[in-house]
Design a protein that fits this description.
two-stranded parallel sheet; globular; 10 helices; Protocatechuate 4,5-dioxygenase, Chain B; alpha/beta; six-stranded mixed beta sheet
Length: 268
Protein backbone atom coordinates (compact mmCIF):
# COMPACT_ATOMS: atom_id res chain seq x y z
CA UNK A 1 0.00 0.00 0.00
CA UNK A 2 1.38 3.39 -0.97
CA UNK A 3 2.36 5.56 1.99
CA UNK A 4 0.96 9.04 2.54
CA UNK A 5 3.53 11.40 0.98
CA UNK A 6 4.90 13.52 3.77
CA UNK A 7 5.79 17.20 3.65
CA UNK A 8 9.32 18.47 4.29
CA UNK A 9 10.14 21.07 6.92
CA UNK A 10 12.82 23.54 7.78
CA UNK A 11 12.37 24.75 11.36
CA UNK A 12 13.98 27.43 13.48
CA UNK A 13 14.97 25.40 16.52
CA UNK A 14 15.33 28.16 19.14
CA UNK A 15 18.06 28.63 21.73
CA UNK A 16 19.63 25.78 23.68
CA UNK A 17 17.24 23.50 25.63
CA UNK A 18 14.40 26.04 25.83
CA UNK A 19 11.63 23.42 25.52
CA UNK A 20 12.82 21.72 28.71
CA UNK A 21 12.92 24.92 30.75
CA UNK A 22 10.08 26.13 32.94
CA UNK A 23 11.05 29.71 33.72
CA UNK A 24 10.21 33.16 32.30
CA UNK A 25 12.63 32.73 29.36
CA UNK A 26 10.30 30.18 27.80
CA UNK A 27 7.63 32.79 27.11
CA UNK A 28 9.78 34.18 24.28
CA UNK A 29 9.23 30.91 22.44
CA UNK A 30 5.45 30.75 22.71
CA UNK A 31 4.83 31.30 19.00
CA UNK A 32 7.53 28.84 17.99
CA UNK A 33 6.21 26.30 20.49
CA UNK A 34 2.69 26.58 19.09
CA UNK A 35 3.96 26.15 15.51
CA UNK A 36 6.01 23.07 16.40
CA UNK A 37 3.14 21.55 18.38
CA UNK A 38 0.87 21.96 15.32
CA UNK A 39 3.14 19.95 13.03
CA UNK A 40 1.62 16.50 13.72
CA UNK A 41 -1.83 17.81 12.78
CA UNK A 42 -0.44 19.41 9.61
CA UNK A 43 1.32 16.20 8.66
CA UNK A 44 -1.87 14.21 9.13
CA UNK A 45 -0.26 10.89 9.99
CA UNK A 46 2.35 9.51 12.35
CA UNK A 47 5.64 9.14 10.47
CA UNK A 48 7.50 5.87 10.42
CA UNK A 49 10.54 7.90 11.45
CA UNK A 50 12.01 11.39 11.49
CA UNK A 51 15.20 12.21 9.59
CA UNK A 52 16.62 15.33 11.25
CA UNK A 53 19.36 17.45 9.64
CA UNK A 54 20.67 19.69 12.42
CA UNK A 55 22.90 22.73 12.09
CA UNK A 56 24.85 21.41 15.07
CA UNK A 57 26.55 18.45 13.42
CA UNK A 58 29.20 18.70 10.70
CA UNK A 59 31.44 15.88 9.48
CA UNK A 60 34.00 15.44 6.66
CA UNK A 61 31.36 13.37 4.85
CA UNK A 62 27.64 12.94 5.31
CA UNK A 63 27.17 10.83 8.43
CA UNK A 64 24.13 9.02 9.83
CA UNK A 65 23.47 8.36 13.50
CA UNK A 66 23.02 4.58 13.71
CA UNK A 67 22.69 3.96 17.45
CA UNK A 68 19.39 2.17 18.27
CA UNK A 69 19.32 3.98 21.64
CA UNK A 70 20.88 7.38 20.90
CA UNK A 71 22.64 9.21 23.74
CA UNK A 72 22.44 12.97 24.31
CA UNK A 73 24.86 15.71 23.21
CA UNK A 74 24.56 18.79 25.44
CA UNK A 75 26.07 21.22 22.95
CA UNK A 76 25.31 24.48 24.77
CA UNK A 77 26.64 26.48 27.67
CA UNK A 78 25.41 28.74 30.44
CA UNK A 79 22.12 26.97 31.14
CA UNK A 80 20.90 25.54 34.48
CA UNK A 81 22.59 22.37 35.69
CA UNK A 82 19.49 20.23 35.20
CA UNK A 83 19.56 20.89 31.45
CA UNK A 84 22.74 18.80 31.23
CA UNK A 85 20.83 15.75 32.43
CA UNK A 86 17.64 15.98 30.37
CA UNK A 87 16.68 13.12 28.09
CA UNK A 88 14.86 12.66 24.81
CA UNK A 89 14.55 8.89 24.60
CA UNK A 90 13.21 8.37 21.10
CA UNK A 91 14.60 5.21 19.54
CA UNK A 92 17.06 5.34 16.70
CA UNK A 93 16.54 3.43 13.47
CA UNK A 94 19.74 1.73 12.25
CA UNK A 95 17.99 0.29 9.20
CA UNK A 96 16.86 3.76 8.10
CA UNK A 97 20.35 5.13 8.74
CA UNK A 98 21.78 2.49 6.39
CA UNK A 99 19.05 3.18 3.81
CA UNK A 100 19.79 6.91 3.83
CA UNK A 101 23.54 6.29 3.53
CA UNK A 102 22.83 4.09 0.53
CA UNK A 103 20.72 6.78 -1.16
CA UNK A 104 23.45 9.39 -0.64
CA UNK A 105 26.14 7.06 -1.98
CA UNK A 106 23.97 6.17 -4.99
CA UNK A 107 23.90 9.92 -5.77
CA UNK A 108 27.70 9.94 -5.90
CA UNK A 109 28.50 11.29 -2.44
CA UNK A 110 30.32 9.39 0.33
CA UNK A 111 28.34 8.59 3.47
CA UNK A 112 29.03 6.65 6.63
CA UNK A 113 27.38 5.49 9.84
CA UNK A 114 28.23 6.61 13.38
CA UNK A 115 27.07 4.35 16.19
CA UNK A 116 28.26 6.72 18.95
CA UNK A 117 26.64 10.01 18.00
CA UNK A 118 23.62 11.19 19.99
CA UNK A 119 20.89 13.82 19.70
CA UNK A 120 22.08 17.43 19.80
CA UNK A 121 19.87 20.35 20.80
CA UNK A 122 19.03 21.16 17.19
CA UNK A 123 17.12 17.87 17.28
CA UNK A 124 15.97 17.14 20.82
CA UNK A 125 14.81 20.67 21.70
CA UNK A 126 12.19 20.99 18.90
CA UNK A 127 11.33 17.28 18.97
CA UNK A 128 10.36 17.61 22.64
CA UNK A 129 7.49 19.78 21.40
CA UNK A 130 6.67 18.02 18.12
CA UNK A 131 6.62 14.47 19.52
CA UNK A 132 6.70 14.91 23.31
CA UNK A 133 6.25 11.19 24.00
CA UNK A 134 9.48 10.41 22.11
CA UNK A 135 7.63 7.54 20.43
CA UNK A 136 8.69 8.18 16.81
CA UNK A 137 12.11 6.83 15.78
CA UNK A 138 14.65 9.53 14.93
CA UNK A 139 17.84 9.46 12.87
CA UNK A 140 20.13 12.48 12.63
CA UNK A 141 22.06 13.24 9.45
CA UNK A 142 25.09 15.51 9.54
CA UNK A 143 26.02 18.39 7.33
CA UNK A 144 29.20 18.07 5.28
CA UNK A 145 32.14 20.23 6.27
CA UNK A 146 32.65 23.16 3.91
CA UNK A 147 28.86 23.66 3.78
CA UNK A 148 28.80 23.82 -0.02
CA UNK A 149 25.24 24.82 -1.03
CA UNK A 150 25.09 22.71 -4.21
CA UNK A 151 26.30 19.59 -2.41
CA UNK A 152 23.63 19.92 0.27
CA UNK A 153 20.89 20.60 -2.28
CA UNK A 154 21.97 17.47 -4.19
CA UNK A 155 21.96 15.44 -1.00
CA UNK A 156 18.44 16.63 -0.27
CA UNK A 157 17.32 15.53 -3.74
CA UNK A 158 18.74 12.08 -3.06
CA UNK A 159 16.39 11.77 -0.09
CA UNK A 160 13.15 12.67 -1.89
CA UNK A 161 11.89 9.08 -2.18
CA UNK A 162 11.88 8.71 1.62
CA UNK A 163 8.82 10.95 1.74
CA UNK A 164 6.80 8.13 0.15
CA UNK A 165 8.14 5.69 2.74
CA UNK A 166 6.74 7.49 5.76
CA UNK A 167 9.92 9.37 6.67
CA UNK A 168 9.53 12.97 7.83
CA UNK A 169 12.52 15.05 6.67
CA UNK A 170 13.25 18.05 8.89
CA UNK A 171 16.05 20.58 8.51
CA UNK A 172 16.79 22.37 11.78
CA UNK A 173 18.62 25.68 12.03
CA UNK A 174 17.93 29.41 11.62
CA UNK A 175 17.62 31.46 8.43
CA UNK A 176 19.40 34.23 10.36
CA UNK A 177 21.94 33.26 13.01
CA UNK A 178 24.12 35.98 14.50
CA UNK A 179 24.03 35.71 18.27
CA UNK A 180 26.08 38.88 18.69
CA UNK A 181 23.17 40.90 17.33
CA UNK A 182 20.40 39.29 19.40
CA UNK A 183 18.88 41.36 22.18
CA UNK A 184 18.09 38.77 24.83
CA UNK A 185 15.85 41.23 26.65
CA UNK A 186 13.42 40.79 23.76
CA UNK A 187 12.83 44.54 23.44
CA UNK A 188 14.89 45.39 20.35
CA UNK A 189 13.42 46.44 17.06
CA UNK A 190 14.33 44.43 13.99
CA UNK A 191 16.99 46.26 11.93
CA UNK A 192 16.63 46.80 8.20
CA UNK A 193 19.33 44.27 7.27
CA UNK A 194 17.50 41.46 9.10
CA UNK A 195 14.16 42.35 7.54
CA UNK A 196 15.78 42.47 4.10
CA UNK A 197 17.52 39.12 4.46
CA UNK A 198 14.39 37.46 5.83
CA UNK A 199 12.28 38.95 3.04
CA UNK A 200 14.75 37.90 0.37
CA UNK A 201 14.81 34.35 1.75
CA UNK A 202 11.01 34.21 1.83
CA UNK A 203 10.72 35.36 -1.79
CA UNK A 204 13.42 33.00 -3.07
CA UNK A 205 11.97 29.99 -1.25
CA UNK A 206 8.38 30.77 -2.29
CA UNK A 207 9.50 31.01 -5.92
CA UNK A 208 11.70 27.90 -5.75
CA UNK A 209 14.48 30.13 -7.06
CA UNK A 210 17.17 27.48 -6.75
CA UNK A 211 19.80 29.54 -8.58
CA UNK A 212 19.41 32.45 -6.17
CA UNK A 213 19.44 30.22 -3.11
CA UNK A 214 22.55 28.37 -4.24
CA UNK A 215 24.23 31.75 -4.68
CA UNK A 216 22.79 33.29 -1.50
CA UNK A 217 26.24 34.20 -0.14
CA UNK A 218 26.63 36.68 -3.00
CA UNK A 219 23.03 37.66 -3.74
CA UNK A 220 21.20 37.97 -0.44
CA UNK A 221 21.09 41.47 1.09
CA UNK A 222 22.63 41.66 4.54
CA UNK A 223 24.06 38.14 4.33
CA UNK A 224 27.32 39.00 6.12
CA UNK A 225 25.41 40.24 9.16
CA UNK A 226 22.73 37.56 8.94
CA UNK A 227 25.16 34.65 8.70
CA UNK A 228 28.70 35.12 10.04
CA UNK A 229 28.79 31.32 9.65
CA UNK A 230 26.53 29.25 7.43
CA UNK A 231 25.70 26.01 9.23
CA UNK A 232 22.29 27.26 10.40
CA UNK A 233 21.15 28.22 6.88
CA UNK A 234 22.36 25.18 4.95
CA UNK A 235 19.68 22.78 6.32
CA UNK A 236 17.05 24.74 4.40
CA UNK A 237 18.87 23.81 1.18
CA UNK A 238 18.62 20.13 2.11
CA UNK A 239 14.90 20.58 2.69
CA UNK A 240 14.55 22.46 -0.60
CA UNK A 241 16.26 19.62 -2.45
CA UNK A 242 13.93 17.05 -0.89
CA UNK A 243 10.86 19.16 -1.64
CA UNK A 244 10.92 19.09 -5.43
CA UNK A 245 8.35 21.55 -6.74
CA UNK A 246 6.00 21.30 -3.77
CA UNK A 247 4.09 24.35 -2.61
CA UNK A 248 5.80 26.46 0.04
CA UNK A 249 4.17 27.61 3.29
CA UNK A 250 5.56 29.58 6.22
CA UNK A 251 3.98 28.22 9.43
CA UNK A 252 5.66 30.84 11.61
CA UNK A 253 7.24 34.22 10.84
CA UNK A 254 8.49 37.23 12.74
CA UNK A 255 11.58 37.81 14.88
CA UNK A 256 12.84 37.05 18.33
CA UNK A 257 15.42 39.25 20.04
CA UNK A 258 15.34 41.72 17.17
CA UNK A 259 17.36 39.73 14.64
CA UNK A 260 16.66 35.99 15.06
CA UNK A 261 14.00 35.18 12.48
CA UNK A 262 11.45 32.59 13.55
CA UNK A 263 10.62 31.84 9.91
CA UNK A 264 10.08 28.16 9.34
CA UNK A 265 9.24 26.55 6.01
CA UNK A 266 6.84 23.76 5.06
CA UNK A 267 7.12 22.21 1.62
CA UNK A 268 4.07 20.24 0.53
Amino acid sequence: MKQHRLPVYFISHGGGPWSYMDDPSRAAYSKLEAALAAMPRQIGTTPAAVLMISAHWEEPEFTLMSNPKPPMVYDYGGFPEYTYHIRYDAPGDPALAARVAGLIEAAGMPARLDAERGFDHGAFTPLKVIYPNADVPVVQLSLKEGLDPATHLAMGKALNSLRDEGVLIVGSGFLIHNLRTVDFSGQARTPAWAQEFDGWSKAALAAHDVDALLDYRQRAPGVDLALPTHEHFVPVLVALGSAGNDAVHFPITGFWGGTATRRSVQFG
